[in-house]
Amino acid sequence: MDDSGCYAWCVRGTPGTLQDGGARFATTHWSVVAHCALTDVPEAADALARLCEMYWPPVYSFVRRRGYNQHDAQDLTQAFFAYFLRTKAYARTNRLHGKFRSFLLASVKHFLSDDWDRHQAIKRGGDYQFVSLDQENGEAFYDAASDSDSTAERLFELRWAKTLTSGALDSLRKELQAEGKLQLFDGLKNFLAGGSVLPSYDEAAARTGLSRAAIKTQVHRLRQRYREIVRREIGRTVSAPYEIDEELRYLCSVLAEAA
To answer: What ranges make up the beta strands (E) of 21-141?
Structure first.
């Protein structure tokens, strides 16, 4: 075994490799929402919609763990996001500064605890399909058996971490595919996906036909790029550049505990 540990990419790379400051950060999703919450700027609506679409798996998992069955959890997840967007619930407080993850969790807790809000949202948005969500798809993310001891809050965080990293891995796959390197990605992706035991370089070399040294170089490059993409995605969900590294460390701790 040449390398081991959970989510090795988390501890490699130099913090701040993403251009966190200035104009580039100002265009990220949550900062756009924060600056335009009380207006009808299309960019703000699009940014918020993208955030919500990415976050439905953790919200669905949270609702399920709170005791709702599959059908009710599906309806409540759709109703929550419809209510969240249509009523601009996010603009009613001064909590727009901070992490979208924390803000959304507090919002869905409030939504589930307020019978009037919940029933009104279902009434107004019952035919509103925010995301293509079906029971099979939602249950695949919920994965109740593997997280039977998790609280609803912890399950929300775990689904957030896995959704974000899965999306980043898919983005990396598309980049490599565009470069004609899909076979390389498929051969080395297990070095990025995490787990308590990672593949060996010798095994990967035998499988891909590359030398051991070439495998080590390619794995290093892929981990570095994967980490940059994860940082970019995290940057879209915080309101200030300094929060990116903090959120990245938290994401890695969530994944490590779940391994």
So the answer is: none
